[in-house]
Design brief:
The protein is mainly alpha-helical. It contains three helices and two strands. It has a two-stranded antiparallel sheet. This is Fumarate lyase N-terminal domain-containing protein.
Length: 128
Amino acid sequence: LEDIHMNIEARLIEKVGEVGGKLHTARSRNDQVALDLRLFAKEAISETLVKLRQFQQALITLAEANKGVVMPGYTHLQSAQPILLAHHLLAYFEMLQRDVDRFSDCLRRTDVMPLANVIISGSVPYCS
């Protein structure tokens, strides 16, 4: 097929039938791409957030299981002072939390409706 628009329409017709061919009625093709990209980004961000939170939970579980374990703390590749393994693991939890916060903000910013912003003026007739 010619371009992304035609591929999307063909897939939609395959899934929902002939009505899928009306996808572009009173809609800009550029709006459709903006919407599709946002939907893809929302799904990818949501999946990433789930995985980050699962990883954080695994770190908490591991930290709780190793509360009393002492390990060397390093600075400049040199053993510096004793630290708790649990504290070391929880430091990674906090680093990941910054990523969770950033992805959550991205999700919030992505969760907007881009339709009807067409390239020039929109498809709604002007009424005075």
